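Technical note accompanying the year-one report. For the benefit of new consortium partners, we illustrate the data format agreed upon in the data management plan: each record pairs a sequence with a structure-token string. No post-processing was applied to the example shown here.
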Amino acid sequence: MRVPLSWLREYVDVAADASPEDVLAALVTVGFEEEDVHRFDITGPVVVGQVVSLEGEPQSNGKTINWCQVDVGEANGGVRGIVCGAHNFVVGDKVIVTLPGAVLPGPFPIAARKTYGHVSDGMIASARELGLGDEHNGILVLSDLGIDAAVGTDAIALLGLDDVAVEINVTPDRGYAFSLRGVAREYSHATGAEFRDPAERDFAELQPGTGHLAIVDDEAPVRGRVGASEFVTRVVRGVDPSRPTPPWMIARLSLAGMRSLGVLIDITNYVMLELGQPLHGYDLDKLTGGITVRRARAGEKMTTLDGQERTLHVEDLLITDESGPIGLAGVMGGGTTEMSDTTTDVLIEAASFDPTTIARTARRHKLPSEASKRFERGVDPLIPFVAARRAADLMVELAGGTLTDEGGALFAEVFVAEIDLPAGFVEGLIGVDYTEAEITGALTTIGAEVTAADDGWTVIPPTWRPDLTDKWTLAEEVARIHGLDRIPSVLPTPPSGRGLTAHQQGRRRVANALAAAGFVETPAFPFTTEAQNDLHGSATGEHLPSIRLANPLDGQVPFLRRSLVPGLLQTAHRNISRGLTDLAIFDTGAVFLPEAGVTYGTDDVPPLGERPSEETLAELNASIPPQNRFLAALLTGNATPRQPGRPAEATGLSDALDAVRVIATAAGVEIDVVQSTRTALHPGRTGDLRVADQVVGYVGELHPAVTADADLPGRATVLEVDLDLVLSLAGERIVAASLSTFPAATQDVSLAVPAEVPAADVEAALAEGAGALLESVRLVDDYRGEGVPAGSKSLSFALRFRADDRTLTAAEASEAKLAGVAVASERFGAALRD
């Protein structure tokens, strides 16, 4: 909301020396955000001049210019010669002259310059050149504006161009601040200055007469509320739409962000900004019969003021006459009854419309307007009578009309519910020891009626504050009026044992460990295609149920993901296309795993204004598919770049397995890798990840066809684990035991086993047979070739033995090693190799 300070001063006492920054600072103290300061970009000598002589001089280009002598007053150099190309003035007219040294909006500096054979010592200005509008129908002649000022008068002050506006951000719950009335009241709250309510002016008569009644025929109320609760009309006859809008009004509208559109429309906009009540003016001669407010019928159409034909929705609220729709209620009028240059009689409409209806209509037709912006936030239901009369009086004053007794009024009783405010509630919620006088004083200041009650107060909020609905919002008002700076900045002491849960700590620990290992976290949107879900969300590529979004951001990816891998593939493709080819990336997030045959979602959405019951919450939770948190990683390109004396080393399955070990260590579990197959992964280079014989994920190299489909060059390796499952299997983390002070004994062993036997199974057999002395076992070589029988492979393991109470002898270590070999031989026919 832009607020011209000259306008603000009409309704509240603003110190004469208060700067725009001072005004903004005061409004910030009552909860507004400052945005900007707006001024007319015009400086320097701009004065009233009178044309002394005018000589037309035809030019070779076919244009005729006027060589003028203009008197700008003795203090400004007397009579000056000025070249002007406009022809809408005569000798004796008083005009606006910008003298050398002035700077007009643009910026456009004015200087004496030679043109058309003369030295033009200044410029005679038009309204557009002064920043007073977009029209350029010639220069600005003061008599056309009804202004008579002495020659040499400062035109900047005369036309209101010295005014300045402050801009504040108005939050959606404070629609009353979209008016000078509302902002002036808030400035009064902030400074204690006297507030003069423009809605309480002493009008001789506010109730409209008869002859133009409106009928509300609402067959489809929204949530039980009719679309219009008030509809007030006034009639002004004999207006002259050709009369100019006064410069002071144009200046204020311009600073407020609205352009001048003619005196009749300017008046309705001016009153809307002043009181916060949107108005609409109809050309009375274009109306056919009476006015009916109703919902649109299926397939009905109308043309709005912007010239667009719109197909209406059955929830749209319309203003109609016997000819059909003549306006989208609260949003935009229709083109058939708009005021124009031929209008002589005007019907002024001021109404109260249902905020929900107006908001939905504006969004449905993508037609935001100044009117809808106010209606959807709530307009004071007691203001339409005042606003209609105010606009009528301005049309009488500025457009030469006559206010008649014609009009109509349709209104409902305004009822504002009482709110119980218990004693001690405000202090307990805000944390400030307010006195009773401070609480009641703050609420009275904002316009509420406060009545003492048992153990507290009964409060009736003012009609212009629909956002005050409960004791919590009242408490916030008390804090706002008395200053948020009174709220102490004290951090509460958390109770013992609070903080991150064990699962949250585990997820953070795993992510930090991967990042420390050189991976980069790249979160992706949780949306994908059904085909990608089938490919990466199952081991066999079979079709599994997926959740489709009702209103997807991208129609190409309307399904919630069953796997994190599709997002990593997109991220990798995007990075590679930009030259980043060596990638080690990971993502953590929820995947959505609906069960076959189960219907998710609900059409029964509870109201937003009340807390759902426990039964409703249980139904809503049941309508959501399981959402486990997964972790996935992708590697492609080189693990180490080429450097002098060393070739580049490509990433591969071993790097992915190292990442699995990092995850296992951070999660506090042992993860085994067992060879398996998956549709999206390369045959023979795929393994299931197991914790305690339970599959928690997989690791492997992407199938070449999948890699090519994702536009990834070369090989890519992925892993994915159910992180929630891994952490749940980890249980409580055990404090690490003390390190043994005795040295370790190392042994190596090579075993020949059938090629189809998994190395992990052989490793497990060695560990089981070696017993408690074995501290670690690690596969160091998998050899197949000369010296190994066909159909077999040679697996080499590094064994480390240690005792807690003594230094092991070589014989003890060898004995334990051979015990492990014996178990492997019994289970798999493993033969010890030299």
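Partners are asked to follow this layout when depositing records. Residues 210-411 form a domain with the Phenylalanyl-tRNA Synthetase; Chain B, domain 3 fold (CATH 3.50.40.10).
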